[in-house]
């Protein structure tokens, strides 16, 4: 027993007597006995997670490249998958950069109050600026006649070309004073003019005052006694034969229609003042004669004629200021361009343009209300930048903002006389709102409308009528913002989905090819 232990001890102490592998085996078998002896390579354990435990959390364990196998089918699928990823990424990026909007219909909550602005620019080739008037009415009883504060008028020819500066016609709506005659007047002292002698008299006398009248006209008949009496008084004071400075005449427009049209007479009676030697237009482009809009009683007529005669000997003297308000340049052409704006209540109403005067009559059978709409819009003007921003959200917005612009409505007189041209407009408000950031920002508020036009015979004076009706609802267009995180999520889904599907397809294709090869070799599987 002692010998065996000694032999064993000597076996440990004398390792050189045995092969090297025996030493390793013995050390492993007697590890428990040799544990008290510390080895030079042992180290204390590190606190916390070790590198081996951290590596165990790796989701993407690497396979040595030598253990993988490349194939042509996998390469083809990889190319297709890469192209699909690029294509779908581009589509997703385009969708992210595109603008999305939502359209809803809500009750009108306008911030511009209860009034609406209507802007217009309309040309009438056959309506004189002398009598052109703009009226507004609505269902609530509002009736505004001959609006002048926000309306401007310019004389135009038949080709719609302007012939001068702004035409200031003044008010023709005030009450004109007439003489009150109980019986018939005696005699006719004014000279009767026609197309043959008109030019002769206009060149012979420095001042020629002409009354263009119609026998059927009420106002012409009211003026006739005063006119004849004033003509007699002026002839006695300034004898046409010896003095020859002024003469009063008259033209019957029912007999001399062409002469009256040549001087753009559209209302009766029309008093024109012709001055000898003033056949050239002045710097403002006014015509060579003036219109008289003053009272029509004998005393006022005589006083006005006296004022006209007074500066004849000394032409450098100015006329009395008292006559400037009753004499204005006559229209140089028979057409008129009416432009400006009016404010109306947001209820159904009418914008009417017609010939209007409180002291003239009109031959309705000769009136032609043909017109060209250069501009007609509702609401305030908006800046071009605002319209560009709105079109970014809604490309087709603004197409119905001025639907009638550039359209001509002409009465060819094939429907008879007394023709009124009427437009029926249905107006809807459109509001574009951008939601960028935490607050809503209104980009634009505009009123769009549809228009239906017709020609109809009227028993009254023909007019151009724009009947508008506002909808109680409004269209709200809202920009829908897009989340960047949503875009990133979609991109990841595209890449991961294509990669996964491509891997499944590659596995199926690879296994199928292997199966076909085994069948060809006759192997059992």
From TrEMBL:
Compartments where found? Membrane
Which superkingdom does the taxonomy of this entry point to? Eukaryota
Q: Where is the Thioredoxin domain?
A: 167-310
Q: How does it sit in the membrane?
A: Single-pass membrane protein
The record ties this protein, via SUPFAM superfamilies, to: Thioredoxin-like
User: What GO CC terms are in its UniProt record?
Assistant: COPII-coated ER to Golgi transport vesicle; endoplasmic reticulum; membrane
The keyword Acetylation is annotated on this UniProt entry: no
* Residue intervals passing through the bilayer: 70-91, 487-509
Q: Which InterPro entries match?
A: Erv, Erv_C, Erv_N, Thioredoxin-like_sf, Thioredoxin_domain
Where is it chiefly localized? membrane
Q: What's a Pfam family this protein contains?
A: COPIIcoated_ERV
Q: Which UniProt keywords apply?
A: Membrane, Signal, Transmembrane, Transmembrane helix
* PANTHER family for this protein: ENDOPLASMIC RETICULUM-GOLGI INTERMEDIATE COMPARTMENT PROTEIN, PROTEIN DISULFIDE-ISOMERASE 5-3
The record's comment on protein family reads:
Belongs to the protein disulfide isomerase family.
Q: What protein is this chain from? A: Thioredoxin domain-containing protein
């Amino acid at each position: 027993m002692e010998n065996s232990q000694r032999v064993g001890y000597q076996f440990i102490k004398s390792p050189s007597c045995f092969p090297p592998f025996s030493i390793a085996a013995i050390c492993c078998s007697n590890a428990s006995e040799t544990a008290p002896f510390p080895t030079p390579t042992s180290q204390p354990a590190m606190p916390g997670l070790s590198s081996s435990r951290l590596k165990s959390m790796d989701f993407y364990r690497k396979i040595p490249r030598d253990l993988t196998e490349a194939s042509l089918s996998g390469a083809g699928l990889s190319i297709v998958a890469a192209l699909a990823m690029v294509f779908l990424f581009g589509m997703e990026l385009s969708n992210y950069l595109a603008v999305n909007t939502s359209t809803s219909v809500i009750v009108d909550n306008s911030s511009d109050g209860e009034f609406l602005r209507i802007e217009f620019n309309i040309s009438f080739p056959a309506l004189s600026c002398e009598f052109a008037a703009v009226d507004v009415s609505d269902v609530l009883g509002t009736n505004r006649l001959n609006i002048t504060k926000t309306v401007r008028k310019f004389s135009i020819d038949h080709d719609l070309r302007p012939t001068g500066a702004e035409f200031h016609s003044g008010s023709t709506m005030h009450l004109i004073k007439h003489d009150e005659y109980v019986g018939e007047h005696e005699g006719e002292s004014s000279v009767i003019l026609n197309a043959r002698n008109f030019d002769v008299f206009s060149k012979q006398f420095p001042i020629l005052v002409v009354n263009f009248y119609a026998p059927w006209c009420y106002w012409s008949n009211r003026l006739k006694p005063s006119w004849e009496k004033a003509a007699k008084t002026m002839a006695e004071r300034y004898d046409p034969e010896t003095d020859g400075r002024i003469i009063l005449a008259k033209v019957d427009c029912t007999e001399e229609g062409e002469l009256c049209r040549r001087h753009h007479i559209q209302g009766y009676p029309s008093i024109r003042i012709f001055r000898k030697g003033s056949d050239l237009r002045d710097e403002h482009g006014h015509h060579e004669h003036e219109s008289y809009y003053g009272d029509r009683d004998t005393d006022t007529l005589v006083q006005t004629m006296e004022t006209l005669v007074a500066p004849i000997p000394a032409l450098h003297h100015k006329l009395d200021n008292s006559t400037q308000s009753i004499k204005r340049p006559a229209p140089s052409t028979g057409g008129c361009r009416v432009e400006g704006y009016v404010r109306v209540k947001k209820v159904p109403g009418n914008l009417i343009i017609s010939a209007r005067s409180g002291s003239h009559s009109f031959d309705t059978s000769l009136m032609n209300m043909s017109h060209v709409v250069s501009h007609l819009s509702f609401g305030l003007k908006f800046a071009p930048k605002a319209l560009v921003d709105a079109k970014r959200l809604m490309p087709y917005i603004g197409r119905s903002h001025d639907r009638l612009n550039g359209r001509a409505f002409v009465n060819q007189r094939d429907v008879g006389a007394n023709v009124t041209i009427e437009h029926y407009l249905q107006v809807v408000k459109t509001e574009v709102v951008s939601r960028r950031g935490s607050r809503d920002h209104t980009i634009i508020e505009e009123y769009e409308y549809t228009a239906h036009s017709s020609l109809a015979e009227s028993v009254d004076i023909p007019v151009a009528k724009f009947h508008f009706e506002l909808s109680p609802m409004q269209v709200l267009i809202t920009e829908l913002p897009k989340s960047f995180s949503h875009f990133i999520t979609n991109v990841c889904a595209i890449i991961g989905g294509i990669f996964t599907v491509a891997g499944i397809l590659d596995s199926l294709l690879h296994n199928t090819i292997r199966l076909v090869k085994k069948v060809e070799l006759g192997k059992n599987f």
